[in-house]
Recover the amino acids of this structure.
């Protein structure tokens, strides 16, 4: 498993636990540290893990609002914990990440793979639909801005 994919898996598992237990401030770092030790001891680039998780938490209200806008038939609390956190990671990388390190299509593909691995039977399609819709909207806005 590539280092970045493994790192995203650790972030997902950590966000899942953090979200499941009520999103208590200060607990995520502890959960991340434990999961890095358990699932990736000796991983050379753990900075990516902590940066991604921190950015998800920092942008959480905006990210959740985006999820509700892109999936209006699914209130945020009705989306499974796995799918909700896969979307949070995908949106974070898609909108707030370094595009030269993680191009948008890579961010979407990685989120779909996480959903297929950790989610339910239709998780991959759901994640693809939500992130695909968001990508199209962002691309259209960016294109419109470049044409003005």
């Amino acid at each position: 498993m590539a280092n970045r994919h493994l790192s995203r898996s650790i972030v997902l598992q950590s966000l899942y636990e953090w979200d499941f237990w009520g999103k208590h401030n200060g607990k995520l770092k502890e959960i991340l540290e434990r999961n890095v030790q358990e699932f990736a001891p000796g991983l050379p680039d753990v900075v990516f893990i902590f940066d991604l998780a921190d950015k998800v938490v920092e942008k959480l209200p905006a990210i959740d609002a985006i999820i509700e806008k892109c999936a209006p038939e699914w209130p945020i609390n009705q989306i499974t914990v796995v799918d909700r956190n896969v979307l949070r990671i995908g949106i974070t990388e898609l909108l707030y990440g370094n595009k030269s390190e993680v191009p948008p299509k890579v961010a979407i593909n990685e989120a779909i793979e996480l959903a297929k691995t950790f989610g339910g039977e239709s998780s991959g399609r759901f994640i693809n639909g939500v992130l695909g819709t968001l990508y199209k909207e962002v691309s259209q806005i960016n294109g419109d801005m470049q044409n003005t």
